[in-house]
Specification:
The complex is a heterodimer of chains A (about 120) and B (about 550). By secondary structure, chain A is of the alpha+beta class. Chain A has helices spanning about 45-60, 80-90, and strands at about 10-15, 20-25, 30, 60-75, 75-80. In chain B, a hairpin with a 5-residue loop joins strand 14 (about 370-375) and strand 15. Chain B has about 550 residues and is α+β, with helices and mostly antiparallel strands. The chains are: A alpha+beta (about 120), B alpha+beta (about 550). Bound molecules: iron/sulfur cluster.
Chain lengths: ~120, ~550
Amino acid sequence: MAKKKEGPQIISAHRLRDGRPVFLGKDVIWQDIIDNAVIVHSEKDLETLMVEAKNSVEKQEVVEPYALSVTHEGNMIRPDHYRERIRALGPSILPEFHLQPSFAALESHPTHLPE
Amino acid sequence: MYQYDGFDQEFVRQRSAQFRDQVKRRLSGALSEAEFKPLRLMNGVYLELHAYLLRVAIPYGTLSSQQLKRLAMIGRKWDRGYGHFTTRQNIQFNWPKLEDIPDMLDSLAEVEMHAIQTSGACIRNVTADQFSGVAKDEIEDPRPWAEIIRQWSSLHPEFTFLPRKFKVSITGSSEDRAAIKVHDIGLALKKNDHGDIGFEVMVGGGQGRTPMLAQTIRDFLPKSEILPYLEAIMRVYNQFGRRDNKYKARIKILVHETGIEKLRSLVEAEYEALRASFIDLPQAEVSRIQNFFTAPPYQNLEDQEALLNQQAQQNTGFGQWLQANRTGHKQPGYAVVTISLKPIGGIPGDISSDQMDYVADLSERYGFGEIRVTHEQNLVLPDIRQDQLFDLYQDLVSQGLATANAGLISDIISCPGMDYCALATARSIPIAQALSRRFEDITSQQNIGPLKIKISGCINACGHHHVGHIGILGLERKGEEHYQLSLGGHAGFEASIGKIVGPSFKEHQIVDAVETVVQTYLDLRTEDEIFLDTYRRLGDTPFKEALYAAA
Ligand code: SF4
């Protein structure tokens, strides 16, 4: 994933117990829905946030935390990369399993392929 | 079918108990992720995009109805009600919770199944021709040999830390349905001029970023010498295989860099040295294993072509299904049936727990309670009476399992791609679905004839795109999904690696591009030519022109 130096970023990880993607929210509470993530705008703030994420790793809450670039508008947080959008939403082929972050409405999933 | 002895049973149970303890220690923090990861991988547990994944081995693709019912139950109880069959004759569950996996493994152990050696740098699940034991063109049933190799390779102390993963595949027929030439070792049972049956041993095949076809290292090996010979190959690989670079560590690179002649002499020298201490397989042991694979109690029946023709005429759907999904059986009056897991617009290789239960019941009602799993992500009922095919067909129709497309253009191999896989660079399933819908009509599929489309979501090539007649590789270009098209690949004794045809296509272009390729073939084929023949006769020029001329 191309990591933007500038621009909004959030931290994601997998929850240890079930492997589900989670997003670092306020008060170091890991959230299922990406809209609830804490957004940072500088590398320095990202570092501070990453320290919290790593503490969470030490506490066996999550594994493999990493930063990703997002765009946000009002309440909506939308990952910039398609991989991260699929990860935050659910398999593009199984809408019945999709979580409902605000950006879901923007996705043309399963796909805009011609029939 | 092979049945575990006390040793197998105890070993699988112990392993499951060990893993339960490891999971407990991980959740409590006694084990860090770095410590735990290799342990979970050794038990087939990956961490993918949305959840953990549990990969369960189905040795040489053979399942009993009881085992399939257990897989159904596991999918229902601990997953989301379905499973996914892979190109390595494994089944994957996509949503297990880490804390549930020990229970899943215990449940598998009860029916003699496990997830050991489905990951990591070891000898993986041995795969085989899905029609083993029933194929009309069979020279010898490879399953006993696959079982012997499975036992030898299971936790072999010398080969648990190989330079990389190692895959063995085996066939006993005159046609290769197990893609043996793209395995680290491919074994083909064959008859020599004296009428003796032995192995042709091929080595160094593989896909991934450097696709290569296996080369023959020993033209004819007496069957009883198979284990010492394999051991010699493994030792040479263990000693000389590269460990400095993950991408150069597979045995195909060793074969490529050393040359097959030199490698052969190294292996033969090792073989000579080790034969002194390595006892050939005693015939008694071979017979013991072979006894697990004796033919079921067939009835003395006659072939029923007249009846089948009549039924096919009355019911076009049945006729089409018969033509595509039925294969000849060595026993008169019986048929081998492929159950397509490629419904039009469906997800290749996926099957619901309810469907698993249903297929297991069918295998008991119509067959001898056995099911096979194919590397092309379909299921097989190996022993169906021809006079019951129509009834079976109607039952399959009722569950959406009667798609008449085995071997046709919509029988697409697709890896999970970015919809599940953490390594993916693009999605592959939606492309398979869109292609399947584009070529939906079975009559036109039959007109197109045998054509294999294979799709991978990254260069690791789990979707076998290198050996697809039409291969599709999903890539990322500038933050978008792109698809690279290759033509002319083939798995089988006459294997070939597909050739990339030109610049890649965007997601919304790839289905049209494939249709252009197919139309070009239809325009240029001579009578009876299948796609691969036309491609091999004409090369890629006409396809290139059709694809890129307008651009
Ligand atoms: S080919 Fe790549 S994307 Fe597909 S399953 Fe293998 S690793 Fe995943």
